[in-house]
Amino acid sequence: MDKKIIISLIIVVLIGVGIWLTSKPVKERPLIIKPPKAPEVRREIAASGWSLKDDEIEAAKEAVSMMKEKLGKSPDFVFLFSSVGYDEEKLLQEITRLLPGTKIYGGTSCLGPMTKDGFHVGKKASLAIMGISSEKITWGVGGANLDELSPREAGKAAVLAAIENAGKKKTEKPNIVFITPAPGKEEEILKGIEDIVGKETPIFGGSSGDNQITGEWRQFVNDKVYSKGLAVAVAYTDLKISYFYEAGYPVTEKRGTVTRAEGRVIYEIDGRPAAEVYNEWTGGIFAKQLAQPGKVWGILAEATFYPIAKVLRVPGMEPFYLAVHPLDIRPDHSLGVFADMATGGEIVLLHGNWEILLNRFLTTPTKALEKFKVKKGEGLFALYTYCAGTMLAIPEKERPKMPLLVKEVIGDIPFIGTFTFGEQGFVPGIGSHHGNLVNSIVIFSPK
Amino acid sequence: MLMLSFMLKKSLFSKIFLLFVLISSVIGAFILTITLQQRTRDLEEALVQENKLLANTISTTIEATHLVQVLPFTILKEVADSENVIFLWIVNPKGEIFYADDPEMFGKIIDDPSLGTNQLVIKDIVYPKNGEKIKLFVSPLKLEAGQKPWSLYMGISLKAIRSAQKEMIFSGLIFFGLIIIATIFASFYLAKGITGPLETLRKGAEIIGKGNLDYQIELKTGDELEELAKSFNQMAKNLKEFHTALEEAKTVLEIKVAARTRELRELAESLEEKVKEKTKELQEKIKELERFQKIAVGRELKMVELKKEIQRLKKILESYQKEKYD
Fold it and tell me: Same domain for B10 and B116?
């Protein structure tokens, strides 16, 4: 045989061996991933819809259509939360036109609202709506203008209007009250509402938010839009209402007494300038601001992980830590906060991180279900209120998981969530309070 | 084509040169392939070990944080954000994805035999979302006492390995190219080393073959070729001696031939003289016979005989003449 042929054969054999050695037989099989289980077919009493459309009319149509398709009929009552960016007057008019006779309650949410379908953030704006249609709930809505009435009076007026709207007497206390106030005077508003419904009626809600704290927040009551007002909804029902309201931050050992405060400013803690004490508690993260006096330093973002908590003590109960968000360090080294502070009050430093804040979407609904002995999937619908500041502290990439985590806990039931500039909630034995950096959930379920 | 035309020349140098280049190339390619394969295996093994540890660490962390009913999102995010991790899921015993790095995967159902495993499972799978072959790590999560374990699913991309493999192939090919260039040079000098002495021998043989028996082939290779050159030189020397002997023999022969020639010439000359004498004698006898003929007219028979004698003598003379001229 010719030498060239032998050499060629050797080369071919060697290359073949090389290829065989480097390649493995394909034996991998694909991982089988199936779509989620379809929820059990049952008669829904609530359904949500949402839209990311820029135009408020188109957005309203899309969201309402989505909701009505699931619900099968027009709802008696809707929660409506939108981001800023729409012409709210036009939006409410369109929704009122689309849902004649339906009672509308809501307000604006920082960045956008969330539903079980996701966290809805549009390029310009977004909205979500959750409609409820049930003979077992009687809804009433009312509003008040804070420019016309004192906060306390506004609270009273709005809740009275809502009770009246529900067709109930003033003396008939609702099972739950939902509020969406403009930020600023929530404590007084709560007092006004409690003047009517008493301290034992749970009040839940959140102060309407915007995207840049520029006062663009709005409150919705039917077709009425308030910029500095209060929206109230009352519910009369024999359904089971489960709820939980908490900050969820771990409590540190740094604590003291407010020795001088006025409204939403803490001047002194343990007799020393409040900002200096706060800086020490945080390990000196505000030393730079304190070293340059003569200016108001905004510290919202940094302070998100270092809230101050008011310690609310009731005999026979564990203390409740009501978180307050430090807002700014002032030239006199006093500390501006987002809630009213009382001289003589006990405070403690809380400390957290974004992981703790994201975990609240698991822990708070879990606690609500456990506390009221409701199983996953048993709920009919839910309302989630979450502090906008803490939402913004969660990495943007992780935010789409927020509603998914809630869904993992409460099951595939309709819910709507809003991101607020102050949260109001009820703690049994403690009462209804206004706090910051807090979150809450209210779940309606069959008894 | 260049190589082919080179081969077609069929010179010993080209054959040896190409053979060396071919053998070196094949061996180089083989070594490169084996090395590449081994290195890929090493990388894959390192990847497996690294991610095995990672999967165990995450599982332990999830189990620990589950005691307080939270998830370690920071770690999960860091892991999910790392380059090699394609997905990270926490799957309940029913196969439902409880947590996923990708929000789209929440709630989806996994149909996998490794679900609920009690020990770490590592296998090769195809990720249906992008059709990529990946390493799947399934680690048990003992979240609920007495219950079937949950599972941590971690998909690890082999892109890093493939990227490293490509780099290795690229650098390997560069190295291989350099080896080939070096081999070409080495083969050239090696072939030259073998065929150079042969060429010297060939030229020497050619010179010697042309008769220059004094030519000495100078070859200092220290091997059989040098011995062969020495043999050539010895052969030339022997040839020269033989040639000298031949020349001497030729001279002797020439002397002998000259002497013999002289003898022959002298013999011829003496024969000529004899012929002349005989001729003279015959002429005289002829004259005498003619005289007798005139005298003895009637004696025809005698005459015939005489004529015959004359004819015979003429033949003898002719033969002598012929012998003389030859």
Answer: yes
Nearest-by-Cβ selection for A32 from B37, B105, B112: B112
For residue B107, what is the DSSP state? T
Query: Number of structural domains, chain B?
Result: 2
- Flag whether B209 is in a domain: no
pLDDT tens column, B147-202: 899 999 999 999 888 888 888 888 888 888 888 888 888 888 888 887 888 888 88
- Does residue B169 lie in a domain region? yes
Under DSSP, is residue B65 helix (H, G, I), strand (E, B) or coil? helix
- Residue A68 has what pLDDT? 95
Q: Does B37 touch chain A (CB under 8 A)?
A: yes
**Same domain, yes or no: B39 and B162:** yes
Say yes or no: B246 and B162 in one domain.
no
CA distances from residue B165 to A21, A307, B36, B39 in whole angstroms, order as listed: 14, 51, 7, 8
Chain B residues with CB under 8 Å of A358 CB are 73
Q: How far apart are CA A252 and CA A133, in angstroms?
A: 45
Domain containing residue B111: CATH number: 3.30.450.20
Whole-number CA gyration radius for chain A = 27
Domain assignment present for residue B174? The answer is yes
ipTM over 0.90: no
| Interface contact A14-B29, CB threshold 8 A | yes
Q: Which of residues 172-211 of A touch B (CB under 8 A)?
A: none
For A381, residues 6+ apart whose C-beta sits below 8 A from its C-beta are A45, A46, A130, A132, A413, A414, A415, A443, A444
Question: Which has the closest alpha carbon to A384: A222, A255, A176, A245?
Answer: A245
pLDDT digits (tens, 9 = 90+) for B224-260: 888 888 888 888 888 888 888 998 999 999 999 999 9
Q: How far is CA B16 from CA A406, B8, B13, B184, in A?
A: 78, 13, 5, 11
Candidates B26, B34, B69; nearest CB to A11: B26
Q: Are B6 and B90 contained in the same domain? A: yes
Chain A CB contacts of B37 below 8 Å: 21-22
Q: Best residue in B106, B129, B135, B166 to probe A by mutation, most A CBs within 10 Å?
A: B106
CA distance A337 to A324: 7
Domain that holds residue B43: 2-179
Which of A404, A406, A410 is the best substitution to test chain B (most B C-beta atoms within 10 A)? A404
The residue out of B119, B145, B179 marking a domain boundary is B179
B74 and chain A: CB distance < 8 Å anywhere? yes
Relative to beta strand A77-82, strand A127-132 is antiparallel
pLDDT at B3 over 60: no
Write down the residue that tokens 């009770």 correspond to.
A163
A395 touches chain B (CB under 8 A): yes
Are residues B263 and B174 located together in one domain of the fold?
A: no
Alpha-carbon span A384 to A413, nearest angstrom: 13
Q: Any idea what DSSP says for residue A38? A: P
Residue A275 CB coordination number (10 Å):
27
Please list the ranges in chain A whose pLDDT falls under 50: 1
For chain A, say whether B19 makes contact (Cβ under 8 Å).
yes
Please report whether residue B207 resides in a domain.
no
One domain, residues B169 and B240: no
Residues B119 and B251 in one domain: no
Coil, helix or strand at residue A105: strand
Q: Which two tokens stand for residue B220?
A: 């200092």
Q: At what angle do helices B159-209 and B224-295 cross, to 10 degrees?
A: 30
Residues of chain B with C-beta less than 8 angstroms from the C-beta of A30 = 125-128
Domain boundaries, chain A: 46-246+355-445, 251-351
A contacts of B98 (beta carbons < 8 Å): 408
Q: Say if residue B6 is in the same domain as residue B120.
A: yes
